[in-house]
Design goal:
213 residues, alpha+beta, 8 strands
Length: 213
């Protein structure tokens, strides 16, 4: 089961190995020692001043293996449009964000929302499903939800929020009260996205067979 854990230095060895694997297929990847990488990650400085006033790092762990991490920060200083340095800018930034898309979709497939969507779709006509969910299918089929950009996910989520057909499948409140809300699955995935993944999986299977579900 995947867990999201706040970073501490006990992660540094495994996190450094994970980071190096990320760079194996990147031609411009810059090799550094573990000590220098840790310094850059948590104690980065510019002209002997810490770059970040506040920062948070969270690590995604599954079966004792790191499958992703995120670091977001508030800078100590920034530069205005005229090139003048000023302090305590009211901005935040995501400095690192890595996640294994395959593991993300595997987590979805274990959720209650996925199961409900999949079982519902198996009882529907394929043409009916293509008509209502074709907008999402190509995007999901090509990349998987886990590999979509944050902009893609936000746009997809806005579409889901206005799609009344998903409300007909199951009561979201009922799922939440049963303790199956998405926080127990991925920490950010909504029940609607879980159900959509289940539906699209059934659509793909039926399309391969080229027969009604």
């Amino acid at each position: 089961m995947m867990k999201i854990i706040a970073y501490n230095d006990s992660f540094i060895d495994s996190l450094f190995i994970y980071w190096k694997k990320l760079g194996e297929n990147i031609p411009y990847f810059f090799e550094v020692s573990k000590e220098k990488w840790r310094e850059s990650l948590v104690e980065d400085e510019l002209e002997e001043e810490k770059k970040f006033l506040l920062q948070e790092i969270f690590v995604a762990v599954e079966d004792q293996h790191i499958i992703g991490f995120i670091q977001f920060c508030q800078p100590t200083f920034d530069w205005d449009e005229n090139g003048f340095k000023y302090r305590n800018p009211k901005i935040g930034l995501i400095r690192h964000f890595y996640f294994e898309a395959v593991r993300y979709d595997e987590a979805i497939s274990k959720s209650q929302g996925y199961k409900i969507g999949y079982e519902w779709a198996q009882k529907q006509n394929l043409d009916y499903l293509r008509q209502h969910f074709g907008l999402y299918f190509d995007q999901w089929n090509d990349d998987g939800m886990g590999s979509l950009s944050s902009n893609d996910l936000n746009r997809l989520n806005r579409n889901l929020e206005t799609d009344p057909i998903l409300e007909d499948i199951v009561s979201i409140k009922k799922m939440d009260s049963a303790g199956t809300h998405s926080r127990g699955v991925t920490g950010s995935l909504s029940n609607r996205k879980s159900m959509l993944a289940g539906i699209l999986t059934a659509v793909k299977e039926a399309s391969v067979l080229n027969q009604p579900i």
